Amino acid sequence: MMSKRQLFPPPSKPNQAGFTVIESLMAIIVVSILMIGLSPVIVLSVATRVQARRVERATQAARTYIDGLQAGTIDFPLHTVTVADATDKKLFAGIGAPNSSVNLSSCSGNTYCQNTASESLYCIDFDGGGCTSDSPIDMIVQGYRSVPSGTVTSPENSYFLGVRVYRADAFSGGRTLTAGTQKATFTGGTGLSSSEAPLVEMTTEVNASQVNYQNLCDRLGGCN
After folding, report:
1. Every domain of the chain and the residues it spans
2. Distance (Å, whole) CA 168 – CA 64
3. What does the alpha-carbon distance between residue 196 and residue 10 come to, in Å, rounded to a whole number?
4. Phi, psi at 11, each rounded to 5°
5. What is the model's pTM?
6. Which of 38-42, 125-129, 160-164 has the lowest mean pLDDT?
7. What is the model's pLDDT at position 144?
8. How far apart are CA 166 and CA 104, in angstroms?
9. Is the pLDDT of residue 164 over 60?
C-alpha cells in the first residue's frame, strides 16, 4: 500500500529566476542614456529633411517666377537697379532684404503682393487661399532687375534679374529679414536656417522676345 507522501508529492519550489527591481532600473537607465545620446542625431536628421524640403519648394517658386517672366505671363518687377556696365554686378547683388511689415492679408495667390519702384514681392501659393503670414509653406519672391544707365526702362529690353525667396511666415511679428546666400545656407548645426534669411537666392538673365545687338549693348551700359 502506497503512503500519502507517495500519492501526493510535495509541490515544487517556485522558480526564482527573473529580473530583480534593481536590474530593471539599471536597464531603464541604460536605455535612457542611449536615447539621450541618439536624440540629437534624430532631431538633426528630421530638421535637415524639413529644411531640404523647404529649399526644394523655394527653388520651385523661383523657377516658376523666372519662367513666368520669360513667358510674359508675369509682369516684370518695377523694382530696378541702375547698372552702368557689366562690372556693376556688386551693386546689383547688394540690394537689401524686403521689409517684413508688408501686409499679406490681401495677397492673392500667384500675384504681386507689392510691385513698386522700391520693392517687388510676388506670392507663390502652395496651400491655396493666397499667401498668409502664418503659413510655413507659401513663399514670397523678391524680384529686382537691372536698368542700364541713361536709358528708359521697358519690358522689351533684356535685363539681369535678382531673385530671393522667403517663407511667408517670415513676414510676421516685425522681424528683420536678411539677405545673402551664406546666411541662408548656414544652419548653425541645427539643420534649420533662420526664417528671416532667404531659402534661395539667385541671379539670372531674362531675354527679350526679340533680342538684338542694341538690346545687349543697352543692358551692359553701351558698346562704345
Report:
1. 30-219
2. 16
3. 79
4. -65, 145
5. 0.71
6. 38-42
7. 92
8. 13
9. yes
**Alpha carbon distance 15, 181 (integer Å):** 68
Buried residues in 91-117 as b, exposed as e (16+ CB within 10 A): ebeeeebbebeeebeebeeeebbbbee
Percent of the chain with pLDDT over 70: 69
Within 10 angstroms of residue 179's Cβ, the number of other Cβ atoms is 20
Of 200, 161, 202, 197, nearest to 179 (Cα)?
197
> Which has the closest alpha carbon to 153: 53, 44, 61, 78?
78
More confident residue, 181 or 124: 124
Residue that is written with C-alpha cell 516684370 in the block: 76
- The residue type of 8 is F
Contacts of 128 (CB under 8 A, 6+ apart): 109
For the four alpha carbons of 17, 21, 22 and 24, in that order, the dihedral sign comes to positive
Residue 213 C-alpha cell reads as 545687338
Diameter over CA atoms, the chain: 132
List phi, psi (to 5°) of 100.
-75, -5
Write out pLDDT tens, residues 15-56: 555 567 787 788 888 888 877 777 777 777 787 888 888 899
Cα–Cα separations (whole angstroms), residue 66 to 123, 157, 174: 13, 15, 28
d(CA 41, CA 195) in angstroms, rounded, equals: 22
